[in-house]
Amino acid sequence: MGQTMTEKLFSAKAGKTVKAGEYVVLPVDRAMCHEGFLLSCAKLITSGITKVWDPEKVVVIMDHYVPSPNVNMAEGHAKIRKMVKQCGITHYYGEREGICHQVMVEKGLVKPGDLVVGTDSHTCTYGGLAAAAAGIGTSEMAYVLATGELWFQVPHSVRVNLKGSLPDRVTSKDVSLALAGRFGAEFGQYRAIEYTGELLKDLSMDSRLVLSNMSVEFGAKFGLFPVDDVTRGFLRSIGTECPEAFASDGDAGFLNEYEIDASDLEPMAALPHTVDNVKPVREIAGERIDQALLGSCTNGRIEDLRAASEILKGRQVSPSVRMYVYPASRNTFRRAMDEGIIQILSEAGAIICPPSCGPCFGSQGGLLASGETCISSTNRNFKGRMGSSDARVYLASPATVAMSAIHGRITDPREEV
Amino acid sequence: MQIQGRAWVLGDNIDTDLIVPGQYLMASLEEQARHVFEAIEPSFMAEVKPGDVIVGGKNFGCGSSREMAPAVLKHLGIGCILAEDFARIFFRNAIAIGLPTLSVKGLGGRIRRFDELSVSLDDGLISIIPSGERFHATPLPEKMREIIDAGGIDGILKTIGKK
To answer: Is the pLDDT of residue A242 over 80?
Structure first.
């Protein structure tokens, strides 16, 4: 029997053939830290460890509390800057560049076949670039910083076959919500999801990163795409070397296969308070909203801002709605300026915010009061995640967020204003 | 190792934001611990006792990689967490900080709120003391028992630091 992408990748790292289910200790290619670096470093210091294993392989990006919302966090950021210097970390991006996952991808810090760990659950985003990347906690990251390795169970793989093509104003976010709705929040639990099928050729890197990013919401360890022309085109655009084709063997052992025909899809939304509580937007249209949030590591890329600006051009965000836009990175922000997107969004009444995580996980920059409702292009709608535990968050695509912002009510983006 | 305590029975998909809401992540562990389960179990903080056992359903700990989620439960003295299954990162984090987490297939509905439980971490035997009903958890893989036995990642790091 052939190997899955995951088995190939782990075998290459282990220097021997390993199979799904085996436990292995492997060196990582990159260790990505956001503000969690502070907690990991504190553990090293307490343990009398004064160096990181390889300062070239560690990346530190601040994004969760940017700009620092209080003195306490400002002190935390100051400590991070000091430790970055002490450890001699070369890939340090501070607060300037944006959300860690987008920065990792844009700066060419991840490449196909890499094994990457990060102190954030959405580290699986890099699966869009055929990298086995997974979130870990700050204690395990401390261990990685000290030793450069970590234990893994080689995950079993499940295949998600994406058929057909996307109808107008239906996006990869709608595909991911449809997957959650149809197969549940656990269909990928402990598994490597491998995306395949005829839809892939139509999915840009931006669109693929959405599906990889959302894979953790299905419980998955990795959300992998094969290396193909889209991958190569993207890598070329950022000036990175294009690797060989990398995909599962035709006779590889998959635990299960799931299928979705994109041609049948319509705009979808996850209703409060779980990601798999999914309905077509059409069925919940009319629900009044107080806030519209466009951005995050899920849907804050240029393609997402374009989709929203296409809808908001020459129109106005409802006076009863505050709309916040958090571009995923400084690079995205600059591109959006060059394309006139920032102008369009601002003229429509949207509030343009600094590239960062913003209110997505409830730290700052647009939290919700009790009784309020938000439609959001982010990744989680858990009770209490974005402010009050009596607030309600609906997850949807950037197009649905933009159209709903105009109407002040959840609205199908295929509807004309 | 034997754990004895009352059961707090929660449902499926207990996410990390229900354990520690994002808005408190900047606060001290003590402050974070004041808000555990406040959105779903408001009496929890007033009534939780050291040794109590959390009984979840499917996908316990789904969501964020925040290590504060198992850390606050450990801080409150929770003896162990039983669930049908755990979200991957929460499970790793709990083991990393030395909080026992046991998967029990077919757990749903067998334990009631405040049932007195006895849990043996050595063989995974769980007993409901009032009814005498017994069942087994899936034993922890050896790799994870080693980490717990070493005092979690903190213990392992201290050994590395001494070298």
So the answer is: no
* Strand runs labelled E in B32-154: 53-55, 80-83, 101-103, 116-120, 125-128, 134-136
Percent of all residues in chain B with a pLDDT value above 70, rounded to a whole number = 100
Q: Give CA–CA dist A82/B12, Å, rounded.
A: 42
Q: Give the pLDDT confidence of A290-345 residue by residue, as tens digits.
A: 999 999 999 999 999 999 999 999 999 999 999 999 999 999 999 999 999 999 99
Query: Which secondary structure element, helix H or strand E, spans residue B8, and what is its range?
Result: strand B2-9
| Among candidate residues A415, A416, A398, A395, the one with its CA nearest the CA of residue A178 | A395
Domains in chain A (CATH in brackets) are 22-151 (3.30.499.10), 156-264 (3.30.499.10), 269-407 (3.30.499.10)
Whether residue B145 is predicted with pLDDT greater than 90 in this model: the reply is no
A86-115 average pLDDT score? 97
Answer whether A43 touches B (CB < 8 Å). Answer: yes
Report the distance separating Cα B44 and Cα A198, nearest Å.
50
Q: Are A210 and A377 in contact (CB under 8 A)?
A: no
- Measure the N-to-C terminal CA separation of chain A; round to a whole number of Å: 54
DSSP letter for A271, please: P
Q: Which of A44, A52, A150, A385 to mutate to test the interface with B (most CBs of B within 10 A)?
A: A385
Closest of B156, B149, B31, B84 to residue A139, by C-alpha: B156
Q: Which of B68, B157, B162 to mutate to test the interface with A (most CBs of A within 10 A)?
A: B157
A260 near A128, Cβ under 8 Å? no
Q: Is the ipTM of this complex over 0.85?
A: yes
Are the C-beta atoms of residues A375 and A292 closer than 8 Å to each other? yes
Instruction: Outline where A121-204 has alpha helix (H).
Output: 138-147, 172-183
Q: What distance, in Å, lies between the first and last C-alpha atoms of chain B?
A: 29
Alpha-carbon gap, residue A314 to A305, rounded angstroms: 15
Residue B79 has pLDDT above 60, yes or no: yes
In this predicted structure, what is the pLDDT of residue B35? 95
Res B97 pLDDT > 90:
yes
Residue count of chain A: 417
Contacts of A145 (CB under 8 A, 6+ apart): A31, A40, A41, A44, A52, A53, A58
pLDDT of residue A417: 57
- Phi, psi for residue A82 in degrees, rounded to 5: -65, -45
Q: Which amino acid is at A308?
A: A
Mean per-residue pLDDT, A78-107: 97
A121 interaction partners in chain B (CB closer than 8 Å): 63-65, 89
Residues β-bridged to residue A274: none
Query: What is the pLDDT of chain B when averaged over all its residues?
Result: 94
Q: Pick the residue from chain A with its C-alpha nearest to B62.
A: A219
Q: pTM, whole model, 2 decimals?
A: 0.97
For chain A, the C-alpha Rg in angstroms (whole number) is 21
Token code pair at residue A290: 């107080």
Cβ partners under 8 Å of residue B105, min gap 6: B84, B138
Please tell me the predicted confidence (pLDDT) of residue A100. 98
